[in-house]
Amino acid sequence: MKKIVSGIQTTGKLHLGNYLGSIKNWVTLQNEYQSYLFLADLHAHTVKRNISDVRDASYELVAAYIACGIDYNKSVIFNQSNVPAHAELAWILSCKTPIGWLNRMTQFKDKAGKDKEKASCGLYTYPILMAADILLYKPDIVPVGEDQKQHVEITRDIAQAFNRFIGKEYFKAPEPLISGPAVRVMSLRDGSKKMSKTDESDNSRVNLIDSPEDIERKILKAKTDSIESVYFDKENRPEISNLLSIYAAVSNKPITTIEKDYQHSSFSSFKRNLADLLVNHLKPIAAEINQLLNNKDSIDEILRVGVEKANIEANKTIKDIKEFLGFITHI
Q1: Do 84 and 131 meet the contact criterion of CB atoms below 8 Å apart?
Q2: 96, 138, 172, 197: which is the annotated catalytic residue?
Q3: 172 an active-site residue?
Q4: 111, 172, 283, 316: which is the annotated catalytic residue?
Q5: pTM for the whole structure
Q6: Does domain 3-182+296-324 have CATH number 3.90.1150.10?
């Protein structure tokens, strides 16, 4: 059976972008692929985090996976930090990755901000840990959002460089899979920025556990423009195009159909219907997330089983790599 690998950082509350850009697609893919879906809690520490926030986000992330439709009997759900091979392989791969490759990564420049000298080394080497996350399980595809495509590309480069070093085609060069009408959900307050868990304004995103009242308020106040017409134009009308993409992804309707339905409607009418659509769609998800969070023992058990399965697969890869590199492994 072919494999996929993907994960989400354990930082902050999960939002609509995480759901539409990642989790919703995984739900479909788990029926066709052996899925390794991890909690990227090592990545969460590339910038300053409160320990309690990372722990709470980890529980919420597992609860969201399950509530959104991930079947833990089909998919391997685990936290990255409990599979030591992730960090071990990251070090090995860092010794085979040219610094010039990392210097080209645009996401470091975006996240580090103006004072790059104060950014953590972990943030700089983030792509190498992500490469390790992926290559440990030898997946065929990696479902990602548009902004992560460059990370999969460097993973392919690292895999091929390692293969050349050992003189053997050991690692697959995985393909990125970017699918759906909402592969990159943007902020409700600024159509040029991705919807983010770390945005200071909670009004910039719809959280999966938001109340119906909060969802309605955020959508009705979402930024649009001065053109009183509902149509898709990502370049010139990013905000309304973002809302149309969200509508399409949740309703499973083509954007062209939605444009036709609202060609004579006002923004307020369109936004009110979008709010109703989101409330009806997210309400049962939020209810199940909250129910699962009231029984963290069950989440711990899901992670325990997932970690056990992930370690078995990851340790096979690490054993092979140590033998390729001349380490003594029979002690």
Answers
A1: no
A2: 197
A3: no
A4: 111
A5: 0.91
A6: no
